[in-house]
Specification:
3-stranded antiparallel beta sheet
């Protein structure tokens, strides 16, 4: 059924798949259309599916009780004339076919969600190399979801998650060496200190 998504949806049978990346289109569904079963080159049968991305959800009422397909209301019976979304619209989404589980495509989806920003700067001296990362993470299955100032005191809060579903060791390597690192709760209360490597990186399960 229809489900919310943040940046992408991926459908795969373990051998082939399709990733659908989007900007600001948060609803998607995976549907199985009434199509014949496909047979691949190796004689393997493969069921067909479709990714359905909601571009606009336009309604005149929040809920109506006179639908022939449903009894009663699904919410307040209020007219919503502004929700008809009349006018011109621009939609931005991308498709990425892949083999296997599609882990290599997740980075592309997040890169599409946050495009490059160009800054015009005059020629000047500086201390940074031609290419540098403020915070490098590895492996690719560890997705960096937030880097923000701490709510209380100096420091940075770094959040991420394991997209693979398998246990992994995530390594965070900052441009400027951490003075100290700790695991914290979502309310930023400190739980335990994390050891720093010689290069200033932090590794955690």
């Amino acid at each position: 059924p229809e489900m919310p998504q943040r940046a992408f949806c991926d459908a795969s049978d373990g051998r082939i798949g399709l990733l659908l990346a989007n900007r600001g289109l948060p609803e998607v569904a995976v549907v199985a259309p009434p199509l014949p079963t496909l047979v691949g080159e190796e004689g393997q049968e493969s069921a067909t599916s479709e990714l359905a991305l909601t571009l606009l959800r336009c309604v005149g009422w929040l809920s109506r009780a006179d639908f022939p397909t449903r009894r009663g209301h699904a919410g307040p019976a209020k007219a919503s004339p502004g929700a008809q979304e009349i006018g011109r619209h621009r939609f931005e989404y991308a498709l990425a076919p892949h083999a296997g589980r599609g882990l290599e495509s997740y980075g592309d989806a997040y890169a599409f969600d946050v495009p490059l920003r160009a800054v015009d700067e005059p020629l000047h001296t500086g201390s940074l190399p031609p290419a540098v990362s403020f915070l490098r993470t590895a492996p690719a299955a560890f997705i960096l979801s937030a880097v923000k100032p701490a709510e209380n005191g100096p420091g940075l809060i770094v959040r991420g998650y394991n997209v693979s579903g398998d246990p992994l060791q995530a390594t965070l390597t900052p441009l400027l060496r951490f003075a100290r690192a700790a695991r914290v709760r979502l309310d930023e209360e400190e739980l335990e200190l994390l050891p720093l490597a010689a290069d200033g990186s932090v590794t955690l399960e």
